[in-house]
Design brief:
Helix content: 55-70%
CATH architecture of the largest domain: Alpha-Beta Complex
CATH superfamily of the largest domain: Ribosomal protein L17
Distance between the termini: 96 Å
CATH class of the largest domain: Alpha Beta
CATH topology of the largest domain: 50s Ribosomal Protein L17, Chain: A
Order of helices and strands: HEHHHEEHH
Number of domains: 2
Number of helices: 6
Number of strands: 3
C-alpha cells in the first residue's frame, strides 16, 4: 500500500534530496530569499516550516533537532537568535512563494521563496487610497489647486522683494 507517499521525489535519491533540501534551507535562512524552481520551493516549504516552528522554543533539545536537519552551526545560531524573534507571534506560514515565470533553457517554472517577515516592500504600510476618480472629482481637485496657487504666488513675490532689498 502507498500510504503517506505523496511527496515529490524531485528526480533524486533519498540522500541527495535530503542534502539538497538542507542546503536550500541553509541558504534561505542565510539570505532570507532564494530563487529556485516551483517544485523545489514547495518541497522546501514542507521541509523548513517545522524547523522554523521548532526555533520558537529556544532550548538545547530543539537546537539539536534543527542541527540534525541543517548540519550548519552558524545557520542554526542565526535561526534561533534573529529569525525566531521575528516569527515568535506568527502561528505558521513563515514562507512565501512568488512565481517569476519560466526558465529560458528548459522552461521550468521558476519562483522566489522568501521568509515572510523579511520582505521590506510588502511590510510597508499601504498609503491611503484616493477617493473615486470621477469627472466631478477632477473638477474639485482642479478648483482647489487653483485656490492654492494664488496663495503661493505672493510668498514667491515677497522672497524676490526681500532679495532685492
Amino acid at each position: 500500500m502507498r500510504h503517506n507517499k505523496k511527496f515529490n521525489h524531485l528526480g533524486r535519491t533519498s540522500s541527495h534530496r535530503k542534502a539538497m533540501l538542507a542546503n536550500m534551507a541553509c541558504s534561505l535562512i542565510k539570505h532570507k530569499r532564494i530563487a529556485t524552481t516551483t517544485a523545489k520551493a514547495k518541497a522546501l516549504r514542507v521541509y523548513i516550516e517545522p524547523l522554523l516552528t521548532k526555533s520558537k522554543d529556544d532550548n538545547t533539545h530543539s537546537r539539536r533537532i534543527v542541527f540534525s536537519y541543517l548540519q550548519n552551526k552558524e545557520v542554526v545560531t542565526e535561526l534561533f537568535r534573529d529569525i525566531a524573534q521575528k516569527i515568535a507571534t506568527r502561528p505558521g506560514g513563515y514562507t512565501r512563494i512568488l512565481k517569476t515565470g519560466f526558465r529560458l533553457g528548459d522552461a521550468a517554472e521558476m519562483c522566489i521563496i522568501e521568509l515572510v517577515d523579511y520582505n521590506e516592500n510588502l511590510l510597508k504600510t499601504k498609503e491611503a487610497k484616493k477617493t473615486s476618480r470621477t469627472r466631478r472629482a477632477g473638477k474639485k481637485v482642479a478648483a482647489s489647486a487653483a485656490e492654492v496657487a494664488p496663495a503661493a504666488a505672493p510668498a514667491a513675490e515677497t522672497k524676490e522683494e526681500a532679495a532685492a532689498e
